[in-house]
Amino acid sequence: MSEIIGASALLIGAFFMFVASLGLVRLPDVYTRMHAATKATTFGMGGILIATSLAFQDAEITTQSLLALVFLFLTAPTSAHLIARAAYKNGPDLSSRTTIDEYGPYLQEMKAGEADGPSHHAGTENSGTIPDNR
What are the pLDDT digits (tens) for 13-65? Predict the structure, then answer.
């Protein structure tokens, strides 16, 4: 029974990896390509790691597979988010087929706020000196 489940997980993982590779080739700009690469690849590797742990049925291999899976699910979305933000601020523009840009107005507001000077938040001092509390 575990062989059938392992083979199914491997096929599902391979399918998601195939979808990720198609997304890298077919999608129009860096942001949508990054979305395809991170989402589909994360699920694809998840299926492959689950299939690996089911196929070998060894405690050490299962532990390593699960740790790799947890690490992958924690790091891939975070790194893709940071790379996309950096690319949006400094890199290529959105595709002409992109219809919604929710980050653009927010970024313009942030740049306008920086141009006005440092922000004064409640309870913070922006004088650059350390208060003397004697």
Answer: 999 999 999 998 998 888 888 888 888 889 999 999 999 999 998 999 999 99
User: Which token pair is 83?
Assistant: 């790379």
- CA dist., res. 16 & res. 11, Å (int): 9
What is d(CA 3, CA 25) in angstroms, rounded to the nearest whole number?
A: 33
Q: How far does the chain reach from its first CA to its final CA, in angstroms?
A: 73
φ and ψ of 36, to 5 deg? -65, -40
DSSP string, 13-77: HHHHHHHHHHHHHH-SSHHHHHHHHHHHHHHHHHHHHHHHHHHH--HHHHHHHHHHHHHHHHHHH
As a whole number of angstroms, the distance between CA 37 and CA 20 comes to 5
Q: How far is 4 from 97, CA to CA, in rounded Å?
A: 42
Q: CA of 5: how far to CAs of 16, 70, 110, in Å?
A: 17, 20, 50
